[in-house]
Design brief:
Length: 279
């Protein structure tokens, strides 16, 4: 089973989706399952994890509805207000949806680079384990130091880092990012998605060698047991096709064993998100 661990759907709403700037005009349209499933079939991918792009429970319900009608969507990472004092009640409600595997907050958009360490946010994260939910960490590279402190608070919580924390590939910056990624990777409960790299590089001139140093660090830190392929479709379309994004990781892992490739292209995502538990 080949799993794309990270992709999005939306029905474009210019009022809601203000993060899609004019520079990103290619994303100013609807992106729904039929289109993704076609791209996945062409690339030999069986199923996906749909990840929230809007911070609302309406978004979570939207993704769960799509997942209920499309067997190729194996799981959903939704949004819930983790700052809510009644977070346990909301998590209890969502725990009745078997395809809902975890949650994400768009921390990269928070003005406070130490948002992850807010007391009310930490309280919300603590509640996730009680309901067996995962958490996707979406941050910029500059927020990595706080993320290291953050994961240290929750040794039993399952975390996955989205997009390698968005290193500044276009600017060629790697040293500070690599140091903090290594510190984060010491925590064995933290996985990492091989996703979102092409859009952190120059959209028009990137190539495999541009990305290689960052992949080298990811594999050194997380190994083949804690890395998972993710397309970041449709955001990836700003810089590359679905097939090109997958090809980057396929070519990089060409000399790995069959088992290691299976881990990266499906088994790790299934293990992390508990997909096997769904039967």
């Amino acid at each position: 089973m080949r799993i794309d661990s990270h992709q999005h759907f939306w029905q474009y709403d210019p009022g809601r989706d203000g993060w899609i700037t004019d520079e990103m005009a290619a994303l100013k349209r609807d992106f729904l399952p039929d289109e993704l499933i076609q791209r996945m079939r062409e690339a030999g991918v069986d199923s996906s994890i749909a990840v929230q792009a809007d911070q609302s429970e309406t978004e979570t319900d939207f993704l769960l509805d799509l997942a209920a009608r499309n067997s190729a969507i194996a799981g959903v990472v939704g949004w819930v207000n983790l700052l809510d004092k009644n977070i346990d009640q909301r998590l209890e409600y969502f725990s009745h949806h078997p395809k809902l595997r975890g949650f994400r907050h768009i921390v990269q958009a928070e003005a406070d680079d130490r948002f992850l360490m807010r007391d009310d946010f930490l309280r919300g994260i603590k509640a996730l384990a009680r309901h067996n939910f995962t958490y996707d960490i979406l941050i910029y590279a500059r927020q990595l130091p706080a993320a290291v402190e953050f994961v240290d608070r929750f040794p039993a919580q399952k975390f996955v880092l989205d997009h390698l924390a968005k290193p500044l590939i276009k600017a060629g910056e790697i040293d500070a990012w690599a140091r903090t990624i290594r510190a984060l990777g010491h925590h064995r409960n933290v996985y990492c998605k091989l996703s979102g790299l092409v859009t952190e590089a120059d959209w028009t001139s990137w190539n495999a060698e541009t990305l290689r140093p960052y992949l080298d660090v990811a594999f050194e830190v997380f190994g083949t047991e804690r890395l998972m392929f993710g397309s970041d479709w449709p955001v990836c379309l700003l810089a590359a096709s679905y097939a090109q994004v997958k090809e980057v990781i396929e070519n990089y892992t060409h000399d790995l064993s069959a088992r290691e490739k299976e881990n990266i292209f499906g088994l790790n995502a299934a293990r992390f998100y508990g997909l096997a538990a769904q039967g």
